[in-house]
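Translate structure to sequence.
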């Protein structure tokens, strides 16, 4: 299914591209990262823009460095600013100028150490983080010796799992996954024999519907826990707190987008996904094995009542 087919009715209803003549013909550059919801969401928004008669380019970018790229105008926008993973990079770039906040999604995010429920059966002290050392033997591997194994997110997500383990005295070796797919493969491989497994996970994504589970409850996040050792229970270490349990999901843009592509920026400011919608986008790729472009077109075709008001509000 192609976006031009999916959105044809909207184009006719909105009078073609005439309503967007004020926008530049230069391409809107949308970054692509390494997790499914962001990739599908980016293609969905790109297809909306293309149907508006605007030019779009996609570029693969580092998920931390992208905020500096947005600030400098090397890319035009970012659709998924996760507080836990990217809040520090986002705030640092915003403070330098050149980037504008385009608002929050309704989605509430959380990112942290996670386990499927069969793991709790073997370690009933969970989700309390202090149970982890008592159960470390359940997670040992040939690679980790007598220490438990925790599979963290890819290195560029900067989840600081190693620092967390050291700050809280956890008897675990932290291994970085090469991709989001490697995390899902780890859970799937453990499911057959209900082997206890501890991995980085986040919400919203499709996994919560496939594998019911829980986040480890670390000491509650305090602002500054990543910068001030006085924050959190260990006065000599950073990252001794959990990630925010009710994190934001924001959108940002290069400041010139507001004047160079005013209609597109208007749509960006209206875009607002919730947890279920984002999880559905990820499911199309991670479970249904669709290509991201096709998944985006499918989501748009099935949810016209959701996204079309974002566009029609920007036609005047």
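Result:
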């Amino acid at each position: 299914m192609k976006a031009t087919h999916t959105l044809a009715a909207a184009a006719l209803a909105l009078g073609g591209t005439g309503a967007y003549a004020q926008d530049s013909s230069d391409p809107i550059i949308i970054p692509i990262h390494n997790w499914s919801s962001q990739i599908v969401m980016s293609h969905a928004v790109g297809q909306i823009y293309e149907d508006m008669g605007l030019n779009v380019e996609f570029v693969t970018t580092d998920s931390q460095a992208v905020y500096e790229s947005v600030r400098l105008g090397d890319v035009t926008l970012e659709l998924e600013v996760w507080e836990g993973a990217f809040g520090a990079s986002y705030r640092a770039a915003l403070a330098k100028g050149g980037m504008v906040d385009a608002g929050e999604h309704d989605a509430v995010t959380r990112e942290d150490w996670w386990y499927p429920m069969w793991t709790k059966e073997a370690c009933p002290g969970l989700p309390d983080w202090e149970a982890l050392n008592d159960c470390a033997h359940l997670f040992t591997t040939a690679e980790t010796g007598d220490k438990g194994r925790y599979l963290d997110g890819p290195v560029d997500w900067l989840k600081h799992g190693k620092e967390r383990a050291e700050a809280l005295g956890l008897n675990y070796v932290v291994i970085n996954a090469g991709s989001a797919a490697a995390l899902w493969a780890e859970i799937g491989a453990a499911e057959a024999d209900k082997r206890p497994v501890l991995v980085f996970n986040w919400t919203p994504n499709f996994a919560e519907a496939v594998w019911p589970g829980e986040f480890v409850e670390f000491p509650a996040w305090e602002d500054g826990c990543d910068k001030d050792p006085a924050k959190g229970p260990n006065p000599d270490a950073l990252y001794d707190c959990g990630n925010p349990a009710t994190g934001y999901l924001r959108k940002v843009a290069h400041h010139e987008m507001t004047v160079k592509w005013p209609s597109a920026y208007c749509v960006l400011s209206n875009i607002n996904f919730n947890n279920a919608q984002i999880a559905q986008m990820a499911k199309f790729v991670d479970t249904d094995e669709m290509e991201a472009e096709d998944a985006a077109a499918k989501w748009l075709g099935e949810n016209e009542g959701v996204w079309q008001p974002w566009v029609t509000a920007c036609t005047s």
